[in-house]
Design goal:
Length: 547
């Protein structure tokens, strides 16, 4: 369906919303080949609608040789045949429209595959008109690479071109050559990519490596790494100052925002912004004076903070101070590149997992769930021999072996896990039979899945979670009291009960029981260790101390 472009827009659908990240290879196998695909994902859209999500973000769906599972694109204007091809994509989009679930695609503008036609022509010779689409440079004296930049495997970010005196640059695998965004032709081609997919009906893009498209024009060496920022870039001992994080990137997003806002329903630009400071994060919003940029940058400072009240409060305070007027932020606890939050934050503690679920759902703005977060899925226990990820499986110094967070979705406890047919070997091993599957949790009133449904229902029912009205009402080493609009949430991180008295009338949701109860003014609550209480709008708790 092609939509006319005009300058008006409806209100933002993602404000206060929930976006669900489908890692396609691991979500549902519709053709029984052991790989998740669009056919399988389409069959699960009704489940996601019932869960209450507003939109889905699909991991890369464009044609790729899959050296990095779709993040090495060979054609930006098609859909991978291994996922069902363009026919399956159109069917998925149509079903999503019917259910009123928005669809984001993953856009990979930092690099292509080495199998992309542009790169094949670029390495054919220096006279190729596509040579300048990529970053080529001569080596240093003695044949050393042009500088000290390292890729995300810890090896040189430069690979020698056969029968040539130049190297090409890659921030990731050698099979993922980085594009040269100093070339205006690259800009023009990607603008056409945006329009192609926007016209086809997608609701926006999640932009991969949004901070990293431009590289230093002088190719200067990176300085040694400040260890305090090590979480925000795999530098293997070096700060990624010159091979990413260049200010010219903002011009790209100003132009893309112009394109996205020209549609009747403005398309969402959701950025993967691995930046080490809130000042840098703020810059990705742009400004009314110079031009708006991303609608939502990911707040990875939150994702990687310690799961403790003081650490969370500090990040929230810094986030509030950073946000430009009228802007919102994207919150997430897990994704395909990092450890899942039930493992990383909660160390598998089931009560803390539900606290974390509650936290993610009471933060105003947009919350992004990774597939299986609603089940409380932890990282899988995998032997290196069965891992498939070339980037991290056998790389010394890798931050995380990403396959541990990519196991097939457990839809049932039956053979094939409801992911594929019985007897089909999946691309990664199944989770163990631990009652974390969807079917089992659907039948358990106290399950994580049904608790998450209630959380999303609470979020959707109140305007308090749209916008950015958020503050830390009270915090110490044992508790955290958040105010989101007119709603309060009280978290007990300590080992003893917390006593609170409320004013106002309404209801309260407990993370321990998953039940909602009526509440009236003057009532006293005894908050158990590792419990969260979420109060409806107009109900205000006041701490009286510990029991």
């Amino acid at each position: 369906m092609v939509e006319d472009r005009i300058n008006d827009k409806d209100s933002y659908w993602w404000s206060g919303g929930v976006i669900y990240h489908i890692y396609l290879r691991s979500f549902a196998d519709g053709n029984s080949d052991g790989l998740g695909d669009l056919i399988g994902a389409k069959s699960k859209l009704a489940y996601l609608k019932e869960l209450g999500v507003d939109g889905v973000w699909l991991s890369p769906s464009m044609p790729s040789p899959d050296r990095d599972w779709g993040y090495d694109v060979s054609d930006y204007l098609d859909t991978s045949s291994s996922l069902g091809g363009m026919e399956a994509m159109d069917a998925f989009l149509e079903e999503a429209r019917r259910l009123d679930v928005k669809v984001l695609l993953d856009l990979v503008p930092n690099n292509t595959s080495d199998q992309h036609s542009r790169f094949k022509e670029a390495i054919a010779g220096k006279s190729s008109k596509y040579r300048d689409y990529y970053l080529f440079a001569k080596g240093r004296e003695g044949g050393a690479p042009p500088n000290n930049w390292l890729d995300n495997t810890g090896q040189s970010a430069w690979s020698k071109v056969d029968d040539d005196d130049e190297y090409y640059m890659h921030n990731y695998l050698p099979s993922q050559p980085d594009l040269n965004w100093w070339n205006e032709d690259v800009h023009l081609e990607f603008e056409e990519v945006l329009k192609f997919w926007f016209d086809r009906g997608i609701a926006g893009f999640r932009i991969d490596v949004a901070h990293g498209l431009y590289k230093d024009r002088e190719l200067r060496d990176n300085p040694e790494l400040d260890r305090s920022n090590e979480k925000f870039g795999l530098g293997f001992g070096y700060e990624q100052r010159y091979n990413k994080n260049q200010p010219e990137v903002h011009g790209i997003y100003r132009r893309w925002r112009e394109i996205s806002s020209s549609y009747i329903q403005e398309r969402l630009l959701l950025g993967e912004t691995w930046v080490s400071s809130f000042d840098r994060l703020r810059s990705f919003y742009g400004s009314e004076a110079e031009g708006l940029e991303l609608h939502l940058p990911f707040n990875f400072r939150f994702t990687y903070c310690d799961f403790s009240p003081l650490a969370i409060a500090e990040v929230i305070a810094e986030t509030i101070a950073m946000l430009p007027d009228g802007q919102e932020v994207a919150w997430t606890g897990s994704n395909h590149d990092i450890s899942r939050f039930p493992t990383r934050w909660c160390k598998g503690d089931p009560k803390k997992v539900r606290m974390a679920m509650a936290l993610l759902m009471v933060l105003p703005g947009t919350t992004v769930l990774y597939y299986g977060d609603e089940l409380g899925l932890q990282d899988g226990d995998l032997d290196v021999e069965v891992m498939q990820d070339e980037m991290t499986a056998r790389v010394d110094g890798a931050r995380f072996q990403r396959d541990r967070a990519r196991l097939p979705m457990p839809w049932s406890s039956k053979a094939g896990a409801g992911f594929t047919k019985e007897g089909v070997i999946p691309w990664l091993p199944f989770y163990g039979d631990d009652e974390f599957d969807v079917e089992t949790q659907m039948g358990d009133k106290s399950s994580n899945l049904l608790f998450m449904r209630k959380l999303i229902e609470v979020r959707r029912s109140s305007p308090s979670f749209a916008g950015s009205d958020l503050s830390v009402a009270s915090v110490d080493s044992n508790h955290l009291l958040l105010r989101s609009g007119l709603s309060y949430s009280l978290f007990n991180f300590g080992d003893s009960e917390i006593v609170a008295e409320v004013t106002g009338a309404g209801n309260v949701l407990s993370s321990l029981t998953g039940d909602t109860a009526d509440v009236s003014g003057g009532e006293t609550f005894y908050l158990q260790p590792s419990e969260t209480l979420i109060f409806s709008d107009g109900v205000s708790p006041k701490l009286r101390g510990h029991a």
